[in-house]
Write a structure and sequence with these properties.
heterotrimer; A alpha/beta (about 450); B alpha/beta (about 375); C mainly beta (about 90); A: about 450 residues; alpha/beta; FAD/NAD(P)-binding domain; 5-stranded parallel sheet; 16 helices; 24 strands; globular; B: about 375 residues; D-Amino Acid Oxidase, Chain A, domain 2; 6-stranded mixed sheet; 4-stranded mixed sheet; 10 helices; FAD/NAD(P)-binding oxidoreductase (chain A); oxidoreductase activity (chain A); BFD-like_2Fe2S-bd_dom_sf (chain A); oxidoreductase (chain A); Opine_Oxase_asu/HCN_bsu (chain A)
């Protein structure tokens, strides 16, 4: 049986581990030059830093994953630096691009572990040099030893907000402020559920307490107003507090993010149906508890199948591999699958509490000013999207997301709506006076990411 | 309960929406039934060429009529659908192809279509970005391109304003004719009846015709399309080649839209996808025409479903089996430019019982 | 935008050129790091006149850090390692 695993983050590593243990040698593809995913991304050769300083509390987990990764590479058809840009579920074929060379990989089963990216809400000034996602700020520090600026403000919500601020301050960066759009009370209400997270929750509290102790400016329940500056960069962030007072913090960089969203483009191209997960406020591909999808031969694991975090990704990776083996007639140890399923169920309860503690602030997207740049690829402003939803538009109103894309080019650019899609959906839904599930989701189109025209065909 | 009207239209592509508009303007009570959203298939996801040159001579009277409507689209529907008169430059890559271009000059002349040859020296002088493979071209200055995503919705919106009832998500699942009127039933269980039925259902128009005892040899056709990232604007004319294995145009925003070959499709879902190797081959052919495109990134690709007839020209005209039934389908991959004109012509056929446009070559019983 | 080197700042030096201007960088830098830790300030201009861009996600998703590397074509600065002697143009 030929199995392909796309992605070598926590989910991909644990999936391949199970497949190899069962005697298979999967094709294993990652877009990066090394595995680890974004969370455990290793610095390039030459940057010699110990795991503790790179991954903090997660050092042990990261080291274990890297050790497994390195041990597995020679036992697979390991293909780093390789983009899977299209999938043909009928022909069971992945279309890959590596160093300008096109190739096709056929599979009997494919486990897609394509990860996640930051979910962002555009605000005035967000495209200025000096503004990055929260994940970007973390990657700069982790893999390049760099801060995104001299004085950095972190803006958004979610566990990553506090973690990255902590990592920056710990590394000696000047953290000028941590602005959480979630009010304290929302988080406090979710505490009982968060206790299910045990150590994860404790670590979160530790970061917040640590930042407070250092006297770092922290505000909760904020409404972001703008990122000020010019073409050469950022000069300040302005925001409004819960009492309606306006504030400003001088800074030269901003890291922003409101939780994560699945990078599920490949599942989309594989024709896996999607459902809207109200709690996560994300569209997620449909799969069963073991990662099986309604599309023959397609299995999903990790954050690309719905946000669960790195620990859950390792479990879902293993679980999807077991499902592949089971479906191919391998006999599994029932005790192992039951134990894994039980742990996954417990983690799901913690994740639900986490989502309640840091809800996606849809109201911020819906309130976006008309002249705010919404789609950074196509240079589209929020007001242009709203206009397309109105009856007086010459094309008539766009009743759903893909029609809005057709009329306005929102999500038609290089990133295909990865960055602006979540906020665009809220804006359109608000304008049409309906819900995000009602207006549907931006459909992905091949290629998953841009591919050069000069690419040669494989011999 | 059955909703009645004067004319039922099945299919919300460019032709159907234009027919709804023109019929409504003539005072007819019109109901248009569209399975998905208007312009969802061939009319909405095609290349966007508004091209007359190179067409089968039989199509040229329709194309000329349609071009006149394109020119006043802004007045007619409130948007020009980004129609830009860039000219269409059809390129020859060999002497044999050049001879074909020269031969077509006479056809154009007979139909008053402005067209001129651009010879071997002039072609590289006037269009210095063309590759050495190109030996000559013929230039149609009145041709151009438009945004296919806007045309059908804009026509439908104008038709609604003129009184037409445009129903989206209304898939027709049953047809009946009792000798006097047609009754169509939708998937949702609604019933519609009228003495006249206009079949403009694209590939699925074949099934409608078959339901009235006049099956035709129609096949699904899925043009393979792609678009690049935005580049500085330098390719002004819409480009095609003799043989048609690649075509490309650049919009003033900078993106280059290119097509060639066919994707895969399942018309029963309906579902269509571009094929990776077809996309890459079209892209390579494009770089032979315009070498500066090498290294440029493709950011999206797509396909849709059209109907192709064996002789590559559509079925247009009255039914031979059923009075009151009219067809216009099977545009074989080049119906976008014709759509607005088809609507006007079908409205004449239905309301006046005649049209000046010769439709004999398109009759349904020609196969 | 100016990236600030906090750690691992004592790696072997390499030299690149951005639009002809020499840029001092370090082995192990991505192109994005190399350019923005020096004084490049930004990586590309938006095609639609809404200002300069300097990347956003650093994980190859946002597609906002494309630059041109002589001999290698268009590349994402965040996902490409800087090499000594690279000639770069803003995307």
């Amino acid at each position: 049986m030929k199995v392909a695993v796309v992605g070598a983050g926590p989910a991909g590593v644990r999936a391949v581990e199970r497949l190899v243990a069962a005697g298979l040698s999967p094709v294993w593809i990652d877009e990066a030059s090394d595995g680890g995913g974004r969370i455990y991304q290793r610095p390039p050769p030459g940057l010699a830093r110990d795991a503790r300083s790179l991954y903090g509390f997660e050092a042990k987990r990261a080291t274990a994953l890297h050790d497994t990764l390195d041990a597995l590479k020679p036992r697979c058809d390991w293909r780093p630096d390789t983009l899977v840009w299209h999938i043909r579920p009928g022909a069971r074929q992945l279309q890959t691009l590596c160093g300008g060379r096109q190739d096709a990989v056929t599979y009997d089963a494919a486990i897609l572990c394509t990860g996640a990216m930051d979910r962002v809400i555009p605000l005035p000034g967000w495209t200025r040099p000096g503004v990055t996602t929260m994940g970007a700020a973390q990657i700069a520090l982790k893999t390049q030893g760099c801060a995104i600026g001299h004085r950095v403000v972190f803006l958004g919500t979610g566990p990553l907000l506090w973690l990255v601020a902590y990592q920056y301050a710990k590394a000696g960066a000047d953290v000028a402020g941590v602005l959480d759009t979630t009010p304290f009370i929302t988080k406090a209400r979710a505490t009982p559920g968060l206790l299910l997270g045990g150590a994860t929750f404790a670590k979160g509290l530790y970061y917040i307490a640590w930042l407070r102790r250092r006297g770092i400016r922290i505000a909760e329940g904020v409404t972001p107003l703008a990122i000020e500056g010019g073409d050469d960069g950022v000069t300040a962030v302005t925001w409004r507090d819960a009492a309606g007072r306006d504030h400003r913090i001088d800074c030269d960089a901003v890291g922003m993010g409101w939780g994560l969203k699945p990078e599920a483009q490949l599942a989309d191209l594989a024709a896996v149906p999607f459902r809207h997960d109200a709690l996560q406020a994300n569209w997620v591909p449909v799969r069963d508890g073991a990662g099986r999808t309604p599309v023959a031969g397609i299995y999903l694991a990790g954050d690309g199948a719905g946000i669960g975090g790195a620990e859950v990704a390792e479990m879902t990776g293993a679980r999807a591999a077991l499902a592949v083996l089971e479906d191919a007639g391998h006999r599994l140890d029932p005790i192992e699958t039951v134990a894994l399923d039980r742990r996954l169920a417990s983690q799901a309860r913690f994740r639900a509490a986490l989502e309640r503690a840091f809800p996606f602030p849809a109201h911020l997207a819906r309130a976006m000013a008309d002249d705010t740049l919404l789609c950074r690829c196509e240079g589209l402003r929020a007001g242009e999207l709203r206009a397309a939803a109105r009856a007086e538009a010459a094309t008539g109103p766009a009743p759903e997301m893909n029609r809005a894309k057709a009329f306005t080019r929102v999500g038609m650019g290089r990133c295909q709506g990865r960055v602006c899609g979540a906020a665009a959906a809220e804006i359109l839904a608000a304008e049409l006076n309906c819900t995000v599930p009602q207006i549907g989701r931006l459909r992905g189109q091949p290629p998953v990411k841009p591919i050069p025209i000069s690419a040669e065909a494989a011999p | 309960m059955t909703t009645t009207c004067d004319v039922l239209i099945q299919g919300g592509g460019g032709a159907g929406c234009s027919a709804a508009l023109h019929l409504a303007q003539r005072g007819m009570r019109v109901i248009l039934l569209e399975r998905g959203l208007v312009g969802g298939q061939a009319s909405g996801v095609n290349y966007g060429g508004v091209r007359q040159q190179g067409r089968n001579p039989a199509e040229l009277p329709i194309a000329r009529r349609s071009r006149e409507i394109w020119g006043r689209l802004g007045v007619l529907v409130g948007t020009d659908a980004e129609f830009t008169v860039t000219g269409h430059l059809k390129l020859a890559r060999s002497e044999a192809e050049e001879a074909e271009l020269i031969a077509y000059l006479d056809v154009a002349k007979q139909h008053d279509l402005p067209l001129r040859m651009v010879g071997r020296n002039a072609i590289h002088r006037d269009y210095p970005w063309l590759g050495p493979l190109v030996v000559a071209g013929s230039f149609a200055p009145e041709d151009g391109a438009a945004n296919p995503r806007l045309l059908s919705p804009a026509l439908a919106h104008a038709a609604r304003a003129a009184g037409a009832d445009i129903r989206e998500h209304a898939e027709v699942v049953a047809h009946a004719h009792d000798g006097a009127r047609f009754t169509l039933r939708t998937k949702a269980g609604e019933s519609f009846a009228a003495p006249v039925l206009l079949n403009v259902a694209g590939f699925w128009g074949g099934a409608v015709a078959a339901a009235f005892g006049e099956a035709v040899p129609i096949e699904p056709l899925s043009p393979n399309m792609a678009v690049t990232e935005p580049l500085p604007y330098f390719i002004e004319p819409n480009l095609g080649v003799v043989g048609g294995n690649v075509y490309l145009r650049q919009i003033p925003r900078g993106n280059v839209i290119l097509g060639g070959g066919h994707g895969e499709a399942d018309a029963s879902i309906p579902w269509s996808r571009p094929l990776p190797e077809v996309t890459m081959e079209a892209a390579q052919l494009a770089t032979q025409l315009v070498p500066a495109l090498a290294g440029v990134q493709i950011i999206r690709s797509w396909s849709g479903i059209d109907g192709r007839m064996p002789d590559r020209i559509p079925v247009i005209g009255p039914s031979r089996t059923t009075a009151g039934l009219f067809h216009a389908f099977g545009f074989s991959g080049h119906g976008f430019q014709l759509g607005p004109g088809i609507g006007a012509i079908m409205a004449e056929l239905i309301v006046d019982g005649r049209t000046d446009i010769p439709l004999d070559p398109f009759r349904i019983d020609r196969f | 935008m100016k990236l600030v080197r906090l750690r691992d700042a004592a790696r072997p030096r390499i030299t690149l050129r951005l639009d002809g201007v020499p840029i001092e960088a370090q082995r192990g830098d991505t192109l994005l790091t190399a350019l923005l830790a020096a004084d490049a300030g930004y990586l590309r201009d938006s095609e639609f006149g809404d200002g300069p861009r300097a990347g956003f996600c650093l994980m190859g998703a946002c597609q906002d850090c494309w630059v041109v590397v002589e001999g290698r074509g268009r590349l994402r600065a965040c996902a490409t390692l800087a090499e000594d002697g690279m000639e770069i143009r803003r995307g």
